[in-house]
Write a structure and sequence with these properties.
Number of strands: 12
Keywords: Cell inner membrane, Cell membrane, Membrane, Signal, Transport
Structural class: alpha/beta
Number of domains: 2
Organism: Desulfomonile tiedjei (strain ATCC 49306 / DSM 6799 / DCB-1)
Subcellular location: Endomembrane system; Periplasm
CATH class of the largest domain: Alpha Beta
Strand order of the largest sheet: 2-1-3-11-4
CATH superfamily of the largest domain: Periplasmic binding protein-like II
Family: Belongs to the bacterial solute-binding protein SsuA/TauA family.
Radius of gyration: 22 Å
Shape: globular
Protein name: ABC transporter, substrate-binding protein, aliphatic sulfonates family
Strand content: 15-25%
Length: 313
């Protein structure tokens, strides 16, 4: 009887040891992270890397991709190439609603942080003057597309006759400089860059169009999130620490942004004035944006609340 009890105890102890080891092995496995090129909204990620906040949590985070647009990030999720990303809420919602990816939103990264920019010497003086002008947006289902429509008073409008073209933000500056477009709406630092380069001026900041509007979010592959609860918690804690760092040590945060973007300090400081870094998810903003996408047919959902409940971690 004693031998049986001893054998059972040994088996139980062995299973506990194996489980602990497997858990530790999981924490040691690198998390494949992605973000958007030169997007100042993703400063919390750069700070977490630079200041070792992920390491403090016992996490290994590898940059698996630096992309030029949100849809490219979604394609990487779909291909199983990344586990997590700092990315726009717009491409996240669109891809998830259309079933091309299964992801979960873990936290907000920032609110606001975009602007409508026109040529430096442009006669355009207000929103109504954009009628008939060639304006670039990053994409038709982006937050910037929503903001441009909302600037005219109705997110469901036709943008008041504005001629809209899709251009990736890194290419907008050249298009504005060569007069291929009359203006653009993009996230920071591209508006600040246009001003710094002497080719553009800010017509209106996105905070004046939709105050506290959601923009970028921290996203994870849904299966990864469901099977890595401990690591998700640690990532979010590191993310929060970065947000606090930006508020408390702004000068150092600016230096880190300069390091990761290669832009000059003045441009970074001006860009950061237009961005609010927060971690608490703006669910009401998410709801309004989902309604906008659904109303215009970019996504097709029968139950918006159910979708929101499923996509928020």
């Amino acid at each position: 009887m004693k031998r049986v009890a001893l054998a059972l105890f040994s088996l139980w102890f062995g299973l506990i040891a194996i489980g602990t080891a497997n858990s530790q092995d999981k924490l040691d496995q690198p998390i494949r992270m992605a973000y958007l090129q030169n997007d100042i909204h993703h400063l919390p990620l750069w700070i977490a890397i630079d200041k070792g906040f992920f390491n403090e949590q016992g996490l290994k985070v590898n940059i698996a991709g630096i992309f030029r647009s949100g849809p490219e990030v979604m394609s990487a999720f779909s291909a199983g190439a990344i586990d997590m990303a700092y990315v726009g809420e717009a491409p996240t919602v669109t891809a998830a609603a259309n079933g091309t990816v299964k992801v979960a939103i873990l936290a907000q990264v920032n609110t606001e942080g975009s602007a409508i920019v026109v040529g430096k010497d442009s006669p355009i003086a207000d929103i109504s003057s954009l009628k008939g002008k060639q304006i670039a947006v990053p994409g038709y289902s982006t937050v910037q597309d929503f903001l441009l429509r909302k600037a005219f008073g109705d997110p469901g409008s036709d943008r008041n006759g504005t001629k809209v073209t899709v251009i990736k933000p890194p290419e907008m500056l050249g298009a504005l400089r060569t007069n291929q477009i009359d203006g653009f709406i993009a996230w920071e630092p591209y508006p600040a860059q246009a001003v710094r380069m002497g080719i553009g001026k800010v017509l209106v900041s996105s905070s004046d169009i939709w105050k506290n509007h959601p923009c970028c979010v921290l996203v994870a592959d849904k299966r990864f999130a469901e099977t890595n609860g401990a690591r998700i918690k640690k990532i979010v804690e590191a993310h929060q620490k970065s947000i606090d760092f930006i508020r408390e040590k702004q000068d150092e945060a600016v230096g880190i942004a300069v390091k990761y973007t290669g832009l000059d300090e003045e441009t970074i400081r001006n860009a950061m004035k237009n961005v609010t870094y927060v971690s608490s998810l703006n669910v009401e903003g998410l709801r309004e944006y989902v309604k906008f996408l659904n109303g215009l047919g970019y996504i097709k959902l029968n139950n918006l609340e159910s979708f929101i409940e499923k996509i928020v971690y």
